[in-house]
Amino acid sequence: MTAFFQAAFLLSGTVIGAGMFSLPYSFLLSGFWTSLLGLVVLTLLTLSLNLFYARLILKNSGDHQLCGYMGKYFGSKGRSLGSLAIVLSATGATLAYVILGGNFLSLFFGTVPSLFYRLIFLLVGIIFFVGGIKTISSFGGILSLGLVVLAIVFSGLGIKYFQFQNLFIPATDNLAFYGPVLFSLSGAIVIPEVEEILRVNNKRNKLYKAIVLGTLLPAIVYVVFSFGVLAISGAFTTADALSGLIIWSPLLVRMGAVVGFFSCLTSFYSLANVLKELCLRDFKVGKKLSINLPILIGLTGVWLNVGLFFKIISLTGTFAVGLIGILIAAMYLKAGAKNWGKAISYMIIAAFSLGMILQLTH
Description:
The protein is mostly helical. The longest helix has 44 residues. Helices cover 75% and strands 0% of the residues. The protein has a single domain, classed as Amino acid/polyamine transporter I.
């Protein structure tokens, strides 16, 4: 595989994750066509942010993450704010993945979601995390490909079950799509690694094209998956997308649950390590606490009801991912954005700030 496609697929593989399963339900609540328009708009804003971040990386020497760039442009307070945004994002995602991973496990065994299955998921995740076992991480690309195949298979094999009137079910919450879509499109934190792949292969000039492909591909997959699930299950679409399809094809749903379970496990492992490194490097806490913090967050997720999964995804997308977007746009302005770049940066800050306000008042 060429360096260009390695870089593009690293971004798309990071973006395409378990958050995908929250989208059909959000499309049901907001109405398919409103949600589709929202997905298009948020994809364009996310693409702009990713390109802005890439330009910042190209303008600065050395290897840095979001916190490092915030420190360069806004000092120690900016670095702390960047760290806080990542902690909030990782915490919300960890809670959601523990709930969803346990739900997929119960779905595979054909039983009701319970604390027991969430605890089993967490214990497996802790074994990989504390043991430093990186094997599960190496399957990230394969699992992302599995999610792409799952989206295509559900839509392809489910054509004969499609009821197109399901796409015109009246909306009950016009803004329900916002947080889950923003959450599911997020992947900016991996762009420094995308740039590194191209740099070491002397293909740095293809960074923008790799980001365009890596950002748009997940959006296309999300449209296909949300369309297929909603067209089949309609008003019976569930927050995890799969439960409402069990009557249609129990075998395929169980296969989807397996892919979803390991996708959640991979995400849990990655997020736990992100939190650990932040605690060690940015917050200067001891190694024991930095390891225990992700575990404590996971334990909190074990005790949360499965019905909170969608709300957590929505809040994390709106506030944590939204804050990361605002910070990137602010850095781009600080770096001297001009013309359209300046206008789009202000538009992103205004849009994401408005999203937070509407979420608080909604």
